Structure of Leptin:
Amino acid sequence: MRCGFLCRFLWLWPYLFYADAAPIQKVQDDTKTLIKTIVTRINDIAHTRSVSSKQRVTGLDFIPRLHPVLSLSKMDQTLAIYQQILTSLPSGNVLQISNDLENLRDLLHLMASSNSCPFPRTRSLKTLEGLDDVLEASLYSTEVVVLSRLQGSLQDMLQQLDFSTGC
């Protein structure tokens, strides 16, 4: 009787193990899809193409630049900064992108927890120094630079997700 139960359990073991892997792949696929959606939303904002993304605007040093290798926690930190900047912009164009970034951060947290990564939720960031002054001086250019850098960061994240990303 015990052998029968043990044999049935051993027979089910591969299926139980495989069942756990499928949702992780789904989360990673959903993450990639959301990144592509955000990039498309940025492309759909017409005025982002009218100003060069390489335009130099004084005081934008707080906007994250591209990183060669991104861990899940670094991706979350970068997205948190972009989210804070986007919520400070008065433009209605970026509201949905900001909401998408929150959803993307939640997906990154799911991926981290599935990999058993210690992944503390990024606390409320300190108000970015000089953000209000920069927005007052050059709101339009700031929005264009923020969106173009965000787009570049998202494309880097998309590539990083194809490889194994560390905690």
Observations:
- The chain has one domain: 22-162.
- The CA atoms of residues 63 and 146 lie 7 Å apart.
- The chain has a mean pLDDT of 77.
- The longest helix spans residues 2-44.
